[in-house]
């Protein structure tokens, strides 16, 4: 493609212009690439945030609710999404990435006494913990208070879990996703 240009001296100069990747002739390819890339990004976003990322449980801390080698889906949590008591979440704790149950939300006080969990002075009925399992004696008498933007988390298998009684409440920014059970996981991500 040739184009004529007028230079500052008033004469004409010939220049060769290449078609732009996004322009008229190359535009089809550019728009096609952009459409495919947009579709892939949208698909990844929807899959990760609406369906959830497949994850394999490693370790006994959530047993019997979630057992080692079980596949679950983890939905990413946005900052504005609410976290409730009883939610099972993935988090970055002081030692690793972990899966725990939310026991206390901001403003709650938790006390471990005689093998039971007391939330705001009332003994917590924990249907997810087997009746013959008591909270570990090592944390007996511990009192935890969740400040603003803090959560108290514990594993369901109290004897095999390091959690808030060991390292304190978790900041909201440490919570990465909410777990939901799934029978088919497809591609897998390992969490230990």
Structure write-up:
This protein has helices at residues 27-51, 164-167; strands at 2-6, 12-16, 53-57, 71-76, 88-92, 97-104, 109-113, 116-119, 122-123, 143-145, 150-154, 170-171, 175-181, 189-191. With 192 residues, it is of the alpha+beta class. It has 2 domains: 20-51; 54-191, Umud Fragment, subunit A (Ribbon), CATH 2.10.109.10. The strands form 3 sheets. It has an 8-stranded mixed sheet with strand order 12-11-6-5-13-4-3-14. The protein has a 4-stranded antiparallel sheet with strand order 9-8-7-10, with no helix packed on it. The longest helix has 25 residues, at 27-51. The radius of gyration is 27 Å and the shape is elongated. Mean pLDDT is 75; it is low at 1-5 and 188-192.
Which features would summarize this protein structure in a list?
4-stranded antiparallel sheet; alpha+beta; elongated; disordered N terminus; disordered C terminus; 2 helices; 2 domains; 8-stranded mixed sheet; 192 residues; single chain; 15% helix; Umud Fragment, subunit A
CATH third-level topology of the largest domain:
Umud Fragment, subunit A
Q: Rg to the nearest angstrom? A: 27 Å
Order of helices and strands: EEHEEEEEEEEEHEEE
Coarse shape? elongated
Structural class call reads: alpha+beta
- What is the count of β-strands? 14
**Total domain units:** 2
In the CATH hierarchy, what is the superfamily of the largest domain? Answer: Umud Fragment, subunit A
In which range does the helix fraction lie? 10-25%
Low-confidence stretches: 1-5, 188-192
Strand order of the largest sheet: 12-11-6-5-13-4-3-14
Could you report the average pLDDT, rounded to the nearest whole number? 75
Mind summarizing the main beta sheet?
A: 8 strands, mixed
- Residue share in β-strands: 25-35%
CATH class assignment of the largest domain: Mainly Beta
The CATH architecture of the largest domain: Ribbon
- Please count the helical segments: 2
């Amino acid at each position: 493609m040739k184009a004529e240009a007028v230079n500052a001296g008033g004469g004409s100069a010939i220049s060769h212009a290449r078609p732009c990747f996004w322009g008229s002739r190359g535009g089809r390819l550019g728009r096609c690439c952009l459409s495919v890339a947009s579709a892939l990004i949208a698909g990844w976003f929807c899959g990760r945030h609406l369906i959830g990322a497949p994850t394999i449980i490693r370790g006994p801390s959530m047993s019997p609710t979630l057992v080692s080698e079980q596949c679950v889906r983890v939905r990413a949590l946005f900052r504005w999404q609410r976290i409730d008591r009883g939610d099972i979440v993935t988090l970055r704790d002081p030692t690793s990435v972990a899966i725990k149950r939310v026991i206390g939300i901001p403003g709650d006080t938790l006390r471990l006494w005689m093998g039971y969990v007391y939330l705001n002075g009332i003994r917590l009925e924990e249907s997810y913990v087997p009746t013959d399992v008591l909270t570990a004696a090592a944390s007996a008498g511990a009192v935890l208070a969740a400040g603003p933007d803090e959560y108290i988390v514990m594993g369901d298998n109290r004897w095999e879990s390091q959690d808030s009684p060991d390292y304190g409440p978790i900041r909201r920014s440490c919570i990465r996703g909410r777990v939901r059970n799934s029978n088919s996981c497809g591609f897998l991500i390992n969490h230990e």
